[in-house]
Specification:
Blueprint lengths: L2 H28 L11 H15 L7 E8 L1 H22 L5 E8 L10 E7 L4 E7 L10 H14 L9 E9 L4 E10 L6 E9 L2 E10 L9 H33 L5 H20 L15 H35 L3 H4 L1 H7 L6 H30 L4 E2 L13 H30 L4 H19 L5 E2 L5 H18 L1 H21 L4 H27 L12 H25 L11 E8 L7 E7 L5 E8 L3 H19 L5 H15 L6 E9 L4 E7 L4 E5 L6 E3 L12 H6 L2 E5 L4 E6 L1 H4 L11 H10 L5 H16 L8 E8 L2
Antiparallel strand pairs: 1-2, 2-3, 3-4, 4-8, 5-6, 6-7, 7-8, 9-10, 11-20, 12-13, 13-14, 14-15, 15-18, 16-17, 16-19, 19-20
Helix pairs in contact: 1-10, 5-7, 5-12, 6-7, 6-11, 7-11, 9-10, 10-13, 10-14, 10-15, 11-12, 11-13, 11-14, 11-15, 12-13, 13-14, 14-15, 16-17, 17-18
Protein name: PPM-type phosphatase domain-containing protein
InterPro entries: Bact_Sigma-Reg, PPM-type-like_dom_sf, PPM-type_phosphatase-like_dom, Rce1/LyrA-like_dom
Keywords: Hydrolase, Membrane, Transmembrane, Transmembrane helix
């Protein structure tokens, strides 16, 4: 497998190193953000801000603190439009006009309908205090007239470090009325040569203090870039439609194929979980700027951040989770006979084989291709600018600077990128199009186009004017990544994307010159080097991984197993019901009725009527411990043993003793059977009975007589070999009279539970039967069942309910 890879591997790595150098060189010449990096970290900006607040006299210790780095994107883009990219670089490098800065915010965690005291400090990229804004509560009083306020503002301007006040002129002033004071705003302006914009400073005087000193670039009102918003809105709309359509396709295919049992889901679930965790970690690692500029009613700033995170985690991130999960799982069918080429390295990793030749074939080449792609992308942007076709604009985000641990953000954003783009657009879309008989060129090309259109909304890596040129770098990435996937496999494509993402973000950190950021770059480069070394080791010294024959998907096995068990339980249920008496005996002067209502799970309840000599009748009711198929089997066994011994003697004790002896030798020690067995002499109206650990029968009489329980002694069948059982078992006998009702039942009635997990109970059951005595045998059973159903409500029946009623008529 490695023979075709080993020969050119050195060439690829030499080319990759050259591409890294060239890509960085081109990015310096084309990327505006590379000329506006922070030279201090977030923590350093906070330290600068706190030191300034101490000098200002603001007590910040009881305030919350957030900091984030941002660009004056509108102003920078206007300068790019008027000066060109090279002119912008000269402007940003020499004029000192603030086009990027740290904003450090101090706030009180109070609802927004309360008076809010807020302090913002602006720190330049190099660590100089640019200005501040102090939002005083409206209740603070103190005012100056306009003339004295202007003199105060001018003097303050003259004292501000690194500002030549003589070059600024007053261009506007206005006043803002508050309930207890009057604030005066003054705007000073310095015209900038070669541009239609201006360098402005806004100063606000509130009583005896300056509450705002804001230094900024005022872009011209008319600019070609003004139409960027409309163009981006169009492209973003197209991007969202394309992505939603693709998401719907993956979901439909997944549901269909999952139902058909043609795909596995375990690996797709793991991949989606990794992406979800990476997204959440990215937010937490960049918590300071999270939710900035968003308001939710009167909810405070702090709680707004948490609410927005909750919305993201339960809506946006879940949507991405589902998309990646369904894309990965649905594509398992489309991979088909290309699995050995496309999924060899990934299958090896999922099998826990990290240093196989399969991994070595894809990982180092993928990392090298990512470095080459890094150079290609910046070359494309450089040529667009050199040929006058388009020029880059300021990016939309600065996440890498706004994180507590930039290296962690490097990794989590790269993980999200590789799993999102390479799973959805490479693994799923290319394999799906190819299965639809598209040619390799068509499959890769369409996938690249769809990924480029989707990236307009979901990625902030590139922003180019005119807007449609933004498609080109994303299209180039899609084509190269698709080519890598087609020829080398998914692991190679992921490694390429990972390498490119790391190099893109590392360039932004490298240009800062700050040691903290440089250490992050060193860590990222060390990681790429370590992965490359591991891949080369696997290539030269690893063994070939041969995946086992892909078995039936696990969820299909579970479904089949569940179906098989359901069939077995249904058979057991039919056996259970089939062993019950088909008709009730007819005896002069007596009325007999019996029922067994099985629960959802098969149990071991049983009742029987046995014709005996001299017209006598055996009545049995039993309950096998446990549930399921074994209980049904033991019930069958119990019926056979009882019938074989009942006809030999009319003594219930003797019958149960013989049944116990055989049951003990037959069933497992953890099982037993409770039984109430009686012999009815209809001619003399006498009943002999014995109880082997079963619920006592209930004897009801018409009138006011209290119920009587037939609770002779006895232990369950199968618990003891014989001597103790026979010694313990007692036999009783009663004389029956007209109007009496004898009720045999199992504990499914008394142990029924309602929705509050309350048990019905034996005392309540006996009381209900007594209050409703005098009914026919069948009516007594119907009444009892209705009462239990009323009590249980929507709670499921968890045990069989079996009852036999003997009614003595006149």
């Amino acid at each position: 497998m490695a023979r075709n890879i080993r020969t050119p591997v050195l060439f690829y790595f030499i080319f990759a190193l050259f591409s890294i150098y060239a890509g960085y060189h081109f990015s310096i010449q084309t990327q505006p953000a590379m000329h506006l990096p922070p030279q201090i970290t977030m923590d350093e900006a906070k330290d600068k801000s706190r030191h300034f607040l101490q000098e200002y006299g603001f007590e910040y210790t009881n305030f919350g603190e957030y900091a984030y780095y941002s660009y004056d994107k509108t102003g920078a883009n206007a300068l790019i439009d008027s000066l060109g990219i090279d002119g912008f670089f000269r402007f940003s490098d020499t004029t000192g006009v603030p086009l990027s800065y740290w904003q450090v915010l101090y706030y009180k965690n109070v609802p927004r309908d309360k008076e809010e005291e807020l302090f913002q400090v602006y720190v330049s990229a190099g660590g100089r205090i640019l200005g501040y804004r102090y939002f005083l509560p409206d209740s603070v009083s103190d005012s100056q007239n306009s003339d004295s306020a202007l003199v105060f503002a001018q003097n303050y301007l003259k004292q501000w470090p690194d500002v030549d006040a003589s070059r600024y002129t007053l261009v506007r002033s206005n006043q803002t009325e508050h309930p207890n004071r009057l604030d005066m705003d003054f705007v000073f302006e310095k015209r900038l040569k070669g541009t239609e914009g201006a360098d402005r400073i806004n100063i606000t005087v509130s009583g005896g203090r300056i509450t705002r000193f804001y230094h900024y670039f005022q872009e011209p009102t008319q600019s070609n870039i003004a139409s960027v918003g409309g163009a981006n809105l169009l492209f973003n709309t197209i991007s969202i439609i394309v992505y939603l359509s693709l998401s719907l396709l993956t979901l439909i295919l997944f549901l269909r194929r999952y139902h058909e049992g043609t795909i596995a889901v375990r690996h797709g679930l793991w991949v989606a979980v990794i992406v979800y965790v990476a997204l959440v970690v990215t937010v937490i690692n960049s918590w300071d700027p999270w939710g900035t500029g968003n308001n939710i009613g009167i909810i405070s700033r702090y709680y707004t951040k948490w609410i927005l995170l909750g919305i993201q985690m339960t809506v946006s991130y879940v949507y991405i989770f589902i998309n990646i999960f369904t894309a990965w799982s649905a594509s398992e069918l489309d991979i088909g006979d290309k699995r050995a080429r496309w999924m060899s390295g990934i299958d090896s990793l999922f099998a826990g084989k990290f240093f196989t030749r399969n991994v070595g074939r894809e990982l180092p080449l993928g990392l090298a291709f990512g470095a080459i792609l890094y150079g290609i992308i910046h070359l494309v942007i450089y040529l667009l600018n050199q040929w006058g076709l388009a020029h880059p604009l300021m990016p939309r985000g600065t996440d890498i600077y706004n994180s507590y641990w930039p290296l962690l953000t490097l990794l989590t954003t790269a993980v999200y990128a590789i799993f999102f783009h390479d799973v959805v657009f490479r693994k799923f879309l290319i394999s799906y199009l190819y299965r639809l008989k598209a040619s390799p060129f068509m499959a890769v090309g369409l996938s690249a186009l769809v990924s480029a259109l989707s990236a307009i909304f979901f990625s902030n890596m590139f922003d180019i004017w005119p807007s449609y040129y933004t498609l080109l770098p994303y299209l180039a990435i899609g084509l190269v990544q698709g080519w890598i996937f087609w020829h080398y496999g998914l692991l190679a494509a992921m490694a390429s994307n990972f390498s490119m993402q790391i190099l893109m973000e590392s360039s932004s950190l490298w240009v800062t010159g700050n040691n903290s950021y440089l250490y992050t770059v060193y860590g990222a480069l060390f990681l790429l080097t370590a992965l490359t070394g591991a891949g080369l080791y696997a290539l030269y010294f690893g063994r070939v991984f041969r995946p086992e024959q892909r078995s039936e998907p696990e969820h299909i096995r579970r479904i089949k197993e569940r179906t098989r068990m359901q069939k077995e339980l249904e058979i057991a249920r039919r056996v259970q019901l089939g062993l019950l008496p088909r008709e009730e005996p007819r005896l002069p002067g007596f009325e007999l009725s019996g029922i067994c209502k099985p629960a959802l799970e098969v149990g071991g309840d049983y009742f029987d009527f046995i014709r005996l000599q001299d017209g006598k009748l055996g009545i049995a009711i039993a309950d096998v411990s446990g549930k399921g198929v074994p209980a049904a089997i033991y019930m069958t066994l119990t019926k056979g043993i009882l019938q074989s011994h009942a006809e030999a003697t009319l003594s219930p004790k003797s019958v149960l003793t013989k049944v116990n002896s055989l049951m003990y030798r037959t069933i497992e020690r953890s099982w037993f059977v409770s039984m109430f067995y009686a012999v009815l002499d209809p001619e003399n109206r006498r009943l002999r009975y014995a109880r082997a650990g079963h619920n006592p029968a209930i004897l009801l009489s018409d009138g006011s007589h209290d119920p009587k329980l037939l609770q002779s002694h006895g232990i369950g069948l199968g618990l003891e070999q014989g001597p103790i059982f026979e010694k313990t078992l007692a036999e009783g006998e009663i004389q029956l009279h007209s109007g009496q009702t004898l009720i045999f039942y199992t504990d499914g009635f008394t142990e029924a539970m309602n929705e509050d997990n309350e048990e019905y109970g034996e005392e309540r059951f006996i009381r209900f039967l007594h209050e409703n005595s005098g009914l026919s045998a069948a009516a007594t059973i119907r009444n009892a069942l209705a009462e239990i159903e009323r009590f249980a409500g929507e709670a499921p029946q968890h045990d069989d309910m079996t009852m036999v009623v003997l009614r003595v008529n006149g």
